[in-house]
User: Which sequence fits this backbone?
């Protein structure tokens, strides 16, 4: 055992701050480190006083507190740790690990214990670590024998960087293929399974035969089926909107409850921020995350960047982010998707909970605490809570207004409605908060699914977990540029198609795992919408032909009761869908959007255009990720300028 | 390696909601089934006597198009899918009996939730079931049923706006208003003031013009949608749209000042229960968080409007309709209000009086054939009971 560890005993903390010196060696170590830092004038006495008070409130180690508050650079701090231990400090980027000493099987131990076998020096194994804890010593004794190793100290960032370098191929492979290897039937790596391909071929053949043998009869049957799907979709949406409109449907976590939470009771929270070529919005992100009401020492922010995206990596470095921020470089590989990047980053996460934010997200400050409260007060099966999403630039143009109405309906009405009905909830792209252990257990995100969030919601339900919706909002930038909107929407629709196809590979198994109600909801919330968007233009054309000409007689196509149902869908159904869209503005008191909401049918036309693009892509390029460009809004630009001004 | 494991769950999310009692408790079920059996039996006789067939024939003859009773027309259209007139009558009667049976069960459930004793709740349900006017409406004068449904739905909707005030209550209120359009041209007129009142129920409407406009739209849009639906179906049925409009023009263009004293007297005699909501408005100590005046006033105000309107506009509405509307609105109100004991006792007393009066003061609805049909059922049953 290294002598230096035994040598370190309790050290008095500075008297001026008025706390009793802690007796545990690890705690005493950080006391000694901070004293050394003060001596070296790398830490101000007043900052230490603040840090000690915070440490007491937050219940974190002094190291995490001092670094989290940005009082000391991590590198300086761990140099001091090495000095106190009287062991060498190594910078792993300059003196990297001997890769032959590491084992991929022990990768999770390295991450958990913050350790790496560094090199052999004079026949003794040197372990690089950030802190020599009893757990680490036990682990090292078991593996290498008590007298065969010694320690060097490095920084957490060096460990992170070196681990990612060492296991780059493995981690990348894991991020891409873990789910497919574990449960190939849940992966969208192949769009259609073999049996699905046969089923599609048989159905297409039968349809072609029917159209040849009895074209009119077949058309009548098809229209009857379409009409019924439309009617059920409308009724289901009505039920969800109505139920979701109730105050009772909202999982309300009161400000008093948030205030009552003791910081010391909060766990470590990991925040993943996957980005690609978004250097310009980085200042916004850092401002938002710094604004979170959560102890800095318990926040682990990981900027998940593609390693080829040097522009964003350099911009992130230039911002001199606090020690709680880390950069994860995702190796280049296909598919180049957000879920793959998140899966990669997941291997470096240490929080009890993990959430995802987009680069331009502005979460309400209390969101993490609300999520913790929701988890703590719900049963064990609650695996995820979804924050509500909305937009900060709703008034920018017609498209952003429509988008805001749509999001308001989705997150304020439909998802709480699904939650109330206890059926699978397709998660939104960001602000979904997970129990990290459960997320890993269910195979994390499907890197081949372009709406991995929606898919994950269904998979969680299949594994017996539940999802809740909390009353905390993340404000995002609404896509107000039409071509960009079409791109984004086509990806979402394609993802819903993928999700439906993936989970319909074993429909009976799906039905058994999520129940009849869940099965119904899955079809009419995830399966039917893309289908109706594809179908809508055909029905619009028929309607226009009927209205604008007198030569077309389509009455035969809709025998009763389908004629009545079709008319109901056309007039009452569609108009009520507009109505639901309009009332969506009420929960947030966006009264200015109500009159504009009358134009929602025009917005539906855009949906159909995007649906056809999605359908085409599903066939020719299913895993292609249509990147949404952020930072285009004038509101974002203005805020960005304000933030830059404050940084100066 | 969490450096701060949570040792105990942190405080409260929100106070746990009091678990709601299930709707289908045995007592609720018994009440609903009893009502269903009794009404089905009655319906059987009425069908035999040809009452409903007369209703169907009148509607098939285009009465709804002439009088604006669209909801009746919709129900009839569904029933008309059956080929045989006899079957249509049976289904219509069973439909009315089933819906009423369920509603009686729900009423009992709601009364119990609002602090009524078992006995009190049963008496209210029983007196409603034995009210001659209600029975007559259900079996022999079914064309006014949409109007009663509209009022019965409107009272809880107004109450929800006052009490809860969430988006769901705004939607509910908006969705109930089309029932007034579907019931008759006379009730259609109520939509305008109710829409404005509904918009003003939102406190933001008093401060922000945009909020007022928004809430106005939220309240009125369902009515406009349903109106579009009516027009759409009329077009599909190749009906002349002017025929639909003429119903309203005929109603509103021929305003006359009639003698409303008879109608008011009928309200007093047939439905003295209107006294209870008025007393509620001034009662000193109520077992509620606050006083919900508007829904209480609507219980009396809406039937009062009907009583006056049937003398002002040309209408086929019979004299019994406003008092029955008051009883219906009152019972609907009872299902959402929590009353002190004295007002509950008064409600029971007045409901009993109302039921008794309905059989004694028969001037408004006297129908000897219907009574004979009823007695034809009652006599053997009574004989069987008497041995």
Assistant:
């Amino acid at each position: 055992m290294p002598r230096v560890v035994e040598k370190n005993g309790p050290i008095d903390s500075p008297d001026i701050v008025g706390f009793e010196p802690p007796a545990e060696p690890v705690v005493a170590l950080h006391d000694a480190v901070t004293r050394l830092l003060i001596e070296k004038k790398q830490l101000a006495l007043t900052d230490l006083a603040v840090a000690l008070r915070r440490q007491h409130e937050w219940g974190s180690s002094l190291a995490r507190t001092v670094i989290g508050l940005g009082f000391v650079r991590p590198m300086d701090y761990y140099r001091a740790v090495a000095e106190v231990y009287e062991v060498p400090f190594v910078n792993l980027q300059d003196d990297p690990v001997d890769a032959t000493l590491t084992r991929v099987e022990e990768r999770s131990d390295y991450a958990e214990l913050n350790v790496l076998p560094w090199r052999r020096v004079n026949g003794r194994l040197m372990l690089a670590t950030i802190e020599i804890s009893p757990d680490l010593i036990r682990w090292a004794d078991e593996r290498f024998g008590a007298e065969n190793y010694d320690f060097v100290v490095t920084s957490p960032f060096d460990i992170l960087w070196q681990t990612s370098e060492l296991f780059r191929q493995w981690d990348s492979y894991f991020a891409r293929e873990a789910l497919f290897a574990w449960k190939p039937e849940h992966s969208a790596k192949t769009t259609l399974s073999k049996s699905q391909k046969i089923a599609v071929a048989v159905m297409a053949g039968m349809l072609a035969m029917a159209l040849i043998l009895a074209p009119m009869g077949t058309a009548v049957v098809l229209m009857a089926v379409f009409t019924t799907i439309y009617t059920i979709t409308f009724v289901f949406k009505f039920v969800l909107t109505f139920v979701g409109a109730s105050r009772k449907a909202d999982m309300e976590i009161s400000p008093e409850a948030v205030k009552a939470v003791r910081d010391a009771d909060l766990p470590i929270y990991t925040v993943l921020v996957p980005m690609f070529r978004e250097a310009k919005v980085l200042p916004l992100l850092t401002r938002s995350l710094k604004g979170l009401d959560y102890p800095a020492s318990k926040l682990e922010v990981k900027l998940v960047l593609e390693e080829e995206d040097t522009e964003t990596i350099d911009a992130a470095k230039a911002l001199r982010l606090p020690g709680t921020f880390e950069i994860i470089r995702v190796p280049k590989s296909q598919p180049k998707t957000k879920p793959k990047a998140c899966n990669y980053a997941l291997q470096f996460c240490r929080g009890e909970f993990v959430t995802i934010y987009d680069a331009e997200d502005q979460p309400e400050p209390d969101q993490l605490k609300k999520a913790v409260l929701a988890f703590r007060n719900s049963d064990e099966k609650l695996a995820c809570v979804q924050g509500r999403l909305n937009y900060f630039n709703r008034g920018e143009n017609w498209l952003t207004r429509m988008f805001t109405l749509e999001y308001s309906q989705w997150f304020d009405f439909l998802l709480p409605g699904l939650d109330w009905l206890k059926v699978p909830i397709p998660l939104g792209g960001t602000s979904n908060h997970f129990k990290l252990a459960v997320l890993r257990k269910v195979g994390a995100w499907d890197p081949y699914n372009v709406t991995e969030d929606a898919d994950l919601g269904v998979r969680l339900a299949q594994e017996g977990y539940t999802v809740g919706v909390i009353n905390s909002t993340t404000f995002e930038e609404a896509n107000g540029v039409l071509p960009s909107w079409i791109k984004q929407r086509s990806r979402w629709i394609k993802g819903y198609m993928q999700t439906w196809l993936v989970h319909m590979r074993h429909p009976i198994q799906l039905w058994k795992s999520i129940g009849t109600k869940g099965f119904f909801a899955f079809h009419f919330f995830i399966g039917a919408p893309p289908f109706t968007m594809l179908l809508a233009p055909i029905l619009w054309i028929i309607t226009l032909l009927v209205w604008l000409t007198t030569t077309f007689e389509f009455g035969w196509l809709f025998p009763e009761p389908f004629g009545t149902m079709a008319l109901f869908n056309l007039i009452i159904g569609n108009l009520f869908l507009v109505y639901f869209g309009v009332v969506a503005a009420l929960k947030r008191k966006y009264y200015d959007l109500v009159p504009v909401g009358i134009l929602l049918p025009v917005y539906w036309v855009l949906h159909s255009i995007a649906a056809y693009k999605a359908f085409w892509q599903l066939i020719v390029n299913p895993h292609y990720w249509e990147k949404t460009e952020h930072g285009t809004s004038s509101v974002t630009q203005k805020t960005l300028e304000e933030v830059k001004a404050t940084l100066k | 390696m969490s450096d701060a494991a949570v040792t105990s769950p942190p405080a409260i999310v929100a106070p746990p909601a009091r678990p709601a009692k299930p709707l289908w408790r045995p007592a609720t079920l018994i009440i609903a089934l009893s009502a269903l059996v009794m009404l089905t039996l009655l319906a059987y006789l009425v069908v035999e006597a040809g009452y409903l067939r007369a209703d169907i024939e009148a509607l098939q003859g285009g009465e709804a198009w002439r009088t604006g009773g669209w909801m009746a027309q919709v129900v009839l259209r569904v029933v008309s899918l059956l080929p045989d007139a006899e079957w249509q009558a049976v289904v219509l009667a069973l439909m009315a009996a089933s819906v009423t049976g369920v509603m009686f069960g729900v009423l009992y459930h709601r009364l119990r939730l609002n602090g009524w004793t078992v006995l009190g709740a049963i008496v209210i349900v029983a007196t409603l079931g034995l009210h001659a006017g209600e029975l007559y409406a259900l079996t022999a004068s079914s064309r006014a049923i949409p109007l009663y449904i509209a009022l019965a739905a409107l009272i809880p909707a107004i109450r929800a706006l006052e009490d809860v005030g969430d988006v769901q209550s705004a939607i509910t209120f908006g969705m109930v208003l089309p029932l007034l359009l579907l019931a008759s041209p006379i009730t259609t007129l109520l939509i305008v003031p109710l829409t404005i009142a509904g918009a003003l129920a939102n406190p933001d409407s008093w401060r922000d013009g945009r909020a007022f406009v928004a809430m106005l739209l939220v309240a009125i849009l369902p009515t406009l949608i349903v109106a579009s639906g009516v027009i759409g179906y009329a077009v599909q049925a190749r009906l002349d749209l002017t025929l639909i409009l003429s119903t309203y023009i005929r109603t509103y263009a021929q305003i006359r000042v009639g003698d409303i004293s008879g109608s008011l007297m009928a309200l007093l005699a047939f439905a003295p229960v209107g006294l209870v909501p008025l007393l509620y408005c001034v009662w000193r100590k109520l077992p509620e968080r606050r006083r919900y005046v508007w829904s209480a006033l609507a219980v009396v105000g809406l039937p009062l409007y009907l009583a006056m309107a049937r003398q002002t506009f040309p209408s086929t509405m019979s004299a019994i309709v406003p008092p029955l509307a008051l009883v219906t609105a009152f019972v609907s109100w009872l299902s959402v209000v929590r009353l002190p004991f004295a007002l509950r006792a008064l409600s029971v007393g007045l409901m009993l009086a109302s039921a008794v009066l309905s059989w004694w003061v028969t001037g408004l609805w006297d129908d000897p054939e219907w009574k004979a049909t009823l007695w034809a059922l009652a006599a053997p049953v009574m004989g069987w009971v008497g041995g």
